[in-house]
Amino acid sequence: MTGERHPTLAAARRSRNATLSPRLSCKERVSRGPSGYERSVAAALPRTLRLATAAALLLAASCATTQERPPGPKVNDLDIRGTDDISEGDIKDRILTSETPWWGFWPFGGPRYFDANAWQADLRRIQRYYQAQGYYEAEVVSAEVKQQGTNAVSLQVDVKEGEPTRVAADIDPAVLDGLPPEFRDEHRARVLADLPLKKGDIFREAAWEETKALIEDRLHELGYAEAEVGGEVRVDLATREAIIELKINPGLRYRFGNTFVATDANPQVPPRRIIEQVQGAIQKGDWYSETRLAEAQARVFRMGVFGAVKVNRGAPDRESGTVPVVVDVREAPFRSVRLGAGVGVDAARQEVRALGEWTHRNFQGGLRRFTVRGRAGYAFIPNILNRDKAGPVFEVTTEFEQPRFLFRDLRLQTSLTAERGLEQAYDFWGGRLQAGVIWQPHPNLSIFPSYNLQIYRLTGRVSADARVPPIVLGCTSTSGQCYTALSFVEVAAAWDRRDDPIAPREGYYLAMSVQKGGGPLFGGYEYVRLLPDVRYFQPLDADRRLILAVKVRMGTLNPANNSPTSIVTRFFSGGATAMRGFNGQRLSPLTALPTQVDEDGDGIPEAVTQNAQWDTVPVGGNSLFESALELRYQLTDSLMVAAFYDSGLVGITNFSAKGPRLFGPDHYHALGMGLRYLTVVGPIRLDIARRLNIGRGLPVTTPGYIYPDSGGCFGLGSSWRINGPRTRGATYAGAPEGLCALHLSIGEAF
After folding, report:
1. Comparing C-alpha atoms, which of 617, 611, 595, 742 is closest to residue 673?
2. Do 45-160 and 503-595+608-746 show the same overall fold?
3. Chain segment 655-665, per-residue pLDDT in tens
4. Per-residue confidence at 732, pLDDT binned at 50, 70, 90?
5. Domain 45-160's class?
6. 525 burial type by CB count under 10 A (0-12 exposed, 13-18 middle, 19+ buried)
7. Which of these, 498, 501, 580, lies nearest to 538 by C-alpha position?
């Protein structure tokens, strides 16, 4: 807000009937932000690359906040009194003068100083803000600057709000009499439904502007491409009523005409391919719709070869009643290289890594995409100071994608991956082949049937003197190494209606994965694996600061004839994006790592009696359930807090009649709180959770294992004794894991 008085409000003081915002045009459009495709591209960035970017942004922000101290004294306190109906915080957000925050030591904060000229302008801004909220009688009664010592002041403002001005009547339906008679009743009802301004509401200028923009948008959506909405509001200060006089010129109703493409000189992408994508959203002869234009723009941008795309309407042809579609594109470089580095930190694993990706978006012509991406690093389990297990890890993937495979919305995708990894229970060498087609008939819907072949060499080595039994890994061999082959078909489908995949505030997400392995496909295991995923987001206030987020995820792995399953296909939970009451993958059936010594000198270590707490490693289960209920509240433009309830279950057997029960003794629960620092690459998130002592200990397959008596938090308060509990029911919930977990990551938990 500025310190100048609104001209119509000045007139209101001179007359009992004043005019507010005369004939404000709604033709200017506010940018809608990035398209869904652009957001999905951001979501696809490697998390470690986003972390490096966020660190650079934070460093730049800390430099940007350095400021010279002005000549005025420091503002210790700013108190605005008399704010009964209008929030004091909202007023402070709209003036320049501010008080020094209590977190002034924070690198992004600092002292606030007093400027007399800005203070006088702020007093006018306060009164103007009240008027914009419908309080035309509001006035600043007094403003006091109190000296505090030699270099500080405190500020106190007293306001008198007065009575608000209210809307005198609903919008007259006759303002839409210019609509065509055959559509008038239907379109009038749709245009005037649920408008922000209703009879008896407090008249707010923002709601008035929103009403005009909403009516114009609805008319455009119904085909009235040249619709214009204006009008004025007369404010009667005596009766405290706002009389709305809306003026609407709908114009003709148009249909879509021909599509024209504007490209670079000598384009490599044929215009017919662009038009083909546009026709997926717009058909010649359809009624004009701006939603269709936006959908066409998203479809063209999803081709992945353009740096800029704009789909607009051309000049309407009033004689034919059609509007041409104009597509303006700028080709991006077809080859690109991305490099990054990152660090992964978890209580059970730490890793440093480098990442790289090379992409050719027109490989051998035809907009075929060929990508080579790699990740190389060094992992420490459980941490860099306690290297029970450490070594290099890497993953190299080549991916080929053929657009327009058989028809427009079908893409062929194949990939080949080689990897070497370290897990808590095993290490492995592996190779994966995937071949399938992606069908995307709608921007929010994708269906991906594929064939997958995965081959692993598993080694159950955990330390020099301990091995995980091969049978626990799902191996049929009793040697220290075994080879596992998985051959399966998978159908993965997702329906994504979230407003933002990185930091969603509204919408829902539905996904389903179905795998069928073995049988006629051969492979070492025959099974069916199901994994549905449901997420829902709902803002609870008009400003979308308070968000309710809900997630439910459930999986079951059903082997044929109750045969063993491979550890590669089993379920794990726990971590920053799963059940936050456990560390990464620690919500799982476990196996202990007994301390072994060679007592008889034959070179073969024998297990000794447990006289200390043994380490354990997760080996996965055949059933999974995760749920989360989270409230997120945005405190400032860059800070958000959250409170959450998580629950989770990973059972040894699948969800059968004798399987684990929801809300039974193996279903664990946790409460927690979190802090998010919002950045352009997603929120940097810190969560702390404490598990509730409801249920029993985790299953440990090692016979005679002695559980700890208490878990404590972060090593504090935990205890173990040699005659401690030997059964799951005799110890605390989730034993032997600690009761608390801390998670630091980028992006929301879901």
Report:
1. 742
2. no
3. 887 788 899 99
4. very high
5. alpha beta
6. buried
7. 498
Cis, bond preceding 382 (omega within 30 deg of 0): yes
Average the pLDDT over 412-431 and give the result.
93
Lowest mean pLDDT among 420-429, 472-481, 605-614, 707-716: 472-481
Strongest mean pLDDT among 381-390, 462-471, 729-738: 729-738
Q: Over the range 687-713, which residues count as b (16 or more CB within 10 Å of their CB) and which as e? A: bbbbbeeebbbbbbbbeebbbbbebee
Q: Please report the beta strands in 51-120, taking only residues with DSSP state E, as ranges in sequence order.
A: 74-81
Q: pLDDT confidence of 476, banded at 50, 70, 90?
A: low
Domain ranges of the chain: 45-160, 255-331, 503-595+608-746
What backbone phi and psi angles, to 5 degrees, belong to 694? -125, 115
**What is the token pair recorded at 686?**
């810190």
As a whole-number percent, the residues of the chain with pLDDT over 70 amount to 86
Q: Token digits for 346?
A: 């978890």
* CA-angle at 334, arms to 331 and 339, nearest 5°: 120
Residue 22 has pLDDT above 90, yes or no: no
Region 149-158: what's the mean pLDDT?
A: 92
Q: Which of 686, 742, 687, 685 is nearest to 713 (CA)?
A: 742
CB 628 within 8 A of CB 749: yes
Do residues 580 and 626 touch, judged by C-beta distance below 8 A?
Answer: no
SS3 at position 192:
helix
* Residues 6+ positions from 87 with CB-CB distance below 8 Å: none
pLDDT of residue 111: 84
Three-state DSSP at 130 gives: helix
Measured in whole angstroms, the distance separating CA 236 from the mean position of its chain's CA atoms is 46
Rounded Cα gap, residues 360 and 497, in angstroms? 30
Please give the radius of gyration of the chain, using alpha carbons only, rounded to the nearest integer: 32
Among 3.40.50.2000, 2.40.160.50, 3.60.15.10, 2.60.40.10, what is the CATH number of 503-595+608-746? 2.40.160.50
Nearest to 556 by CA among 424, 458, 649: 649
β-sheet bridge partners, residue 532 = 512
Asked whether residue 611 carries a pLDDT value surpassing 80, the answer given is yes
CA neighbours closer than 13 Å in the CB half-sphere of residue 702: 27
Kindly state the tokens that stand for 188: 């009038």
Q: Check whether 34 has a pLDDT greater than 70.
A: no
What are the beta bridge partners of residue 79? 156
Q: What percent of the chain has pLDDT over 90?
A: 67
- Cα 276 to Cα 278: distance, rounded to the nearest angstrom: 5
At 269, which helix (H) or strand (E)?
none
Looking at residue 103, what is its pLDDT? 61
The predicted-structure confidence for 343-359, as pLDDT tens digits, reads as follows: 877 777 888 999 999 99
Q: Which residue has the higher pLDDT, 424 or 168?
A: 168
Strand, helix or coil at 399? strand
The pair of three-digit structure tokens given for residue 585, joined into one six-digit string: 């993958």
Mean pLDDT throughout 483-506? 94
Q: Which two tokens stand for residue 645?
A: 């309830």
Which residues, in sequence order, are CB contacts of 160 under 8 Å at separation 6+?
Answer: 82, 137, 138, 139, 141
Contact 156, 146 (CB under 8 A): yes
Architecture of domain 255-331: Roll (3.10)
In degrees and rounded to multiples of 5, residue 186 shows phi and psi of -65, -45
499, β-bridge pairs: none
Q: Give 523's pLDDT tier (boundaries 50, 70, 90).
A: confident
Q: Which residues of 453-488 are buried (b: 16+ CB within 10 A; e: fewer)?
A: bbbbebbbebeeebbbebebbbbeeeeeebebebbb
Nearest residue to 134 (alpha-carbon basis) of 160, 162, 159, 158? 162
Taking CA atoms, 655 is separated from 587, 625, 649, 696, in Å, by 17, 10, 11, 19
Number of other CB atoms surrounding residue 87 within 10 Å: 10
pTM: 0.76
CA 537 to chain centre: 10
* Token pair 């403003």: residue: 143
